[in-house]
Design goal:
With about 190 residues, the chain is α/β, with parallel strands linked by helices. The chain has one domain. Strands 1-4-6-5 form a four-stranded mixed β-sheet. Strands 2-3 form a two-stranded antiparallel sheet. Helix 5 crosses helix 8. The protein is globular and about 45 Å long. The two termini are about 25 Å apart.
Length: about 190
């Protein structure tokens, strides 16, 4: 498992206090060659200037919240191996990345460069006010639940209709929530020891 914290590089996405999509593309290209296309494709349905840009600018405008989100990310990931022991027989091949996205989600279980990846979008974490350690832990554990479901189960069962697609989404989120609670219980036990 690799923990990738790009917090110190995020400022390179802002030129004189203004977000630059070109600078952002270079920044995410350094994380993964696939990440730019993945984020831009996901965000293509949003109104960039009115819905995405104001949230991205909050990372710079609310620097204290952003810094707290990074500290929570560091704390949670530092004890992660012990917390997920009940889910996986061995350590998963997984990257957990704190990055600046294009409002693609506070958490996103996906794959990059042939590896499972969890993307923690600091812009959404700040927007949702989830920068505290408890919220960050819940977010990361929830996304780990999606990765567990992919590895150990069937994350993408076939849906033959719109209503079945809704049921599949509820199923996916239910499994992730269960894994989140299992990891939280393990963390509470370890903390008491």
């Amino acid at each position: 498992m690799k923990i990738i914290n790009t917090f110190k590089e995020i400022s390179s996405c802002f030129q004189k206090g203004i977000f630059s999509i070109e600078a952002w593309r270079k920044y995410v290209g350094n994380i993964s060659p696939e990440l730019c296309e993945k984020c831009e494709s996901d965000a293509s349905e949003y109104d960039f200037h009115n819905a995405v840009l104001p949230i991205i600018n909050c990372v710079l405008n609310y620097n204290e919240k952003s810094a707290r989100a990074e500290q929570s990310f560091i704390s949670v990931t530092a004890r992660l191996k012990n917390s997920i022991g009940r889910l996986f027989e061995s350590e998963p091949v997984l990257d957990i990345i704190l990055y600046l996205g294009l409002c693609n989600g506070a958490g996103w279980a996906t794959s990059l460069d042939g590896r499972d990846a969890i993307l923690i979008g600091i812009e959404k974490v700040v927007e949702l006010n989830w920068q505290d350690e408890e919220s960050m832990q819940a977010l990361i554990f929830h996304e780990i639940g999606h990765i567990w479901h992919k590895i150990c189960g069937n994350l993408y069962p076939e849906a033959r209709s719109g209503s079945e697609s809704s049921m599949v989404q509820l199923y996916q989120e239910g499994i992730a929530m269960t894994c989140e609670h299992i990891c939280a219980e393990m963390t509470a036990i370890i903390t008491k020891i």
